[in-house]
């Protein structure tokens, strides 16, 4: 593999990584702080992609799609929170998993009824269809935008949680919920807003992914599973862990898909390599996950308690 | 003798299940046999999941993996012209035990939500492996031309297959009950309640849980074998994560920690599915919320509901007797 291609693939990995982080951040915030397992997070991502694509196709403005996504996702998030979280908050994880599993089936079918079963397309906006020059090589501007947006959101999350009053309440609420409530903080509202924030992050991921992946019912599940791998590797409930693990998974997955087949081809017969390469590449991150777990069951960057 | 719903209903259900092929033959509805064949096959898988989920507290969100493994053993071996059922069974059991032991050992290092996610990820790994097996159909799946043949007994005949599956189900329910009542099962149940205490008492709980996980994987593999024979088809979709989710729904809907519960749950779920499919093409728009409602309303599943009904019934009889 040439150095240019290698850097290119690293950037692509980075881009997948920040997309995964947008998903993982929402999932981690809700899980780490409210202890609620939301499998329907992938459905929020799907709804975000569909809504963004629809707004974009009607108005032709990417900026408008980006603006529309925030209130739309906040609304959907609050509705889901009202239906699921309110009633399932005190239940054990199994019930939460099952109920949100039911929500996934519902959302997939809803998308199929509204937008049809076939992929729905969203073009890359014209002003972003060019390339940008990075260290002397041309990289697609849109993919570069994804990286920038992801990093900005990561920074924003960090500042929100560690540098603001709301973040302080969120952190306090995660460990001493009743105490924070007793101090006169509306913890119920705080949780609703946090869930809404998670939904918005998923929606932004959907918006950004729309033009480079096909927007279709069921698109949320593959990325949800990847996100879970990210969370398990990073350490459950840790935003910092989610960020680093997302980058690791993104880069490993992308490099594996491009490099593994050619590496195997140099080591064994071509026909065997052509079969084993893609199989091994798609399993690679799960192997990484298994290796991490074998050494550190709590993940690479677990939350420090006490 | 007083009527006990929690005994009477399961027995009635088993008798009805045993009579299905007779009805299907007389009414000339072969579809009926296939539908109930699926119910029985999934009931076996659900019972196997209940052993670790209901009694061991291990929420495996990737149990369809073993169903898929069993199905692929039949599919791949038949593809190469091997139709010896004993060989299919042997390979399925060994393969599921191996995969179960390795993934189980890694997964059991964690508990709670991490366990759910890891089992899910492992199932996904094998799902992608199946998708990438291009010579065996890849994404499109693989038709099974010849079924498993056990000497003169061949699973190609739907009625034979049905009764074999039914016998396996009865065996699993019986053996499962024996297992959880035995010392082994007590340790598993103890570990579910308080793992640390069991370890303090000197039980290596990890080893016990792993054995339970492997047993469950092997039984689920057998159900996959039967499923491939039933549908004459094998596909990666058998081990997709939605399939694992549906298995959990069956167990929870029927009632955790009771081996009749999963049987009830499998029957209820597949019948509701069939009914909704008849109503609308977009049946999932109703099915999804139905799962949510089922989770919200029933804490102990259908089997638990029978218990509640029993209590109410006996209370009423008592009042009637009191008045008389």
TrEMBL record, chain A:
<keyword id="KW-0029">Amino-acid transport</keyword>
<dbReference type="GO" id="GO:0005886">
    <property type="term" value="C:plasma membrane"/>
</dbReference>
<feature type="transmembrane region" description="Helical">
    <location>
        <begin position="182"/>
        <end position="210"/>
    </location>
</feature>
<keyword id="KW-0472">Membrane</keyword>
<keyword id="KW-0813">Transport</keyword>
<feature type="transmembrane region" description="Helical">
    <location>
        <begin position="36"/>
        <end position="56"/>
    </location>
</feature>
<feature type="transmembrane region" description="Helical">
    <location>
        <begin position="141"/>
        <end position="161"/>
    </location>
</feature>
<feature type="transmembrane region" description="Helical">
    <location>
        <begin position="6"/>
        <end position="29"/>
    </location>
</feature>
<dbReference type="Pfam" id="PF02653">
    <property type="entry name" value="BPD_transp_2"/>
</dbReference>
<dbReference type="InterPro" id="IPR052157">
    <property type="entry name" value="BCAA_transport_permease"/>
</dbReference>
<feature type="transmembrane region" description="Helical">
    <location>
        <begin position="276"/>
        <end position="295"/>
    </location>
</feature>
<keyword id="KW-0812">Transmembrane</keyword>
<comment type="similarity">
    <text>Belongs to the binding-protein-dependent transport system permease family. LivHM subfamily.</text>
</comment>
<dbReference type="GO" id="GO:0006865">
    <property type="term" value="P:amino acid transport"/>
</dbReference>
<keyword id="KW-1133">Transmembrane helix</keyword>
<keyword id="KW-1003">Cell membrane</keyword>
<feature type="transmembrane region" description="Helical">
    <location>
        <begin position="222"/>
        <end position="255"/>
    </location>
</feature>
<protein>
    <submittedName>
        <fullName>ABC transporter permease</fullName>
    </submittedName>
</protein>
<feature type="transmembrane region" description="Helical">
    <location>
        <begin position="62"/>
        <end position="85"/>
    </location>
</feature>
<dbReference type="InterPro" id="IPR001851">
    <property type="entry name" value="ABC_transp_permease"/>
</dbReference>
<dbReference type="GO" id="GO:0022857">
    <property type="term" value="F:transmembrane transporter activity"/>
</dbReference>
<feature type="transmembrane region" description="Helical">
    <location>
        <begin position="97"/>
        <end position="115"/>
    </location>
</feature>
Automatic annotation (TrEMBL), chain B:
<feature type="transmembrane region" description="Helical">
    <location>
        <begin position="160"/>
        <end position="180"/>
    </location>
</feature>
<feature type="transmembrane region" description="Helical">
    <location>
        <begin position="247"/>
        <end position="271"/>
    </location>
</feature>
<dbReference type="GO" id="GO:0005886">
    <property type="term" value="C:plasma membrane"/>
</dbReference>
<dbReference type="InterPro" id="IPR001851">
    <property type="entry name" value="ABC_transp_permease"/>
</dbReference>
<feature type="transmembrane region" description="Helical">
    <location>
        <begin position="283"/>
        <end position="302"/>
    </location>
</feature>
<keyword id="KW-1003">Cell membrane</keyword>
<dbReference type="InterPro" id="IPR043428">
    <property type="entry name" value="LivM-like"/>
</dbReference>
<feature type="transmembrane region" description="Helical">
    <location>
        <begin position="206"/>
        <end position="227"/>
    </location>
</feature>
<feature type="transmembrane region" description="Helical">
    <location>
        <begin position="113"/>
        <end position="133"/>
    </location>
</feature>
<keyword id="KW-0812">Transmembrane</keyword>
<dbReference type="Pfam" id="PF02653">
    <property type="entry name" value="BPD_transp_2"/>
</dbReference>
<feature type="transmembrane region" description="Helical">
    <location>
        <begin position="86"/>
        <end position="106"/>
    </location>
</feature>
<feature type="transmembrane region" description="Helical">
    <location>
        <begin position="63"/>
        <end position="80"/>
    </location>
</feature>
<feature type="transmembrane region" description="Helical">
    <location>
        <begin position="37"/>
        <end position="56"/>
    </location>
</feature>
<dbReference type="GO" id="GO:0015658">
    <property type="term" value="F:branched-chain amino acid transmembrane transporter activity"/>
</dbReference>
<keyword id="KW-1133">Transmembrane helix</keyword>
<keyword id="KW-0472">Membrane</keyword>
<protein>
    <submittedName>
        <fullName>ABC transporter permease</fullName>
    </submittedName>
</protein>
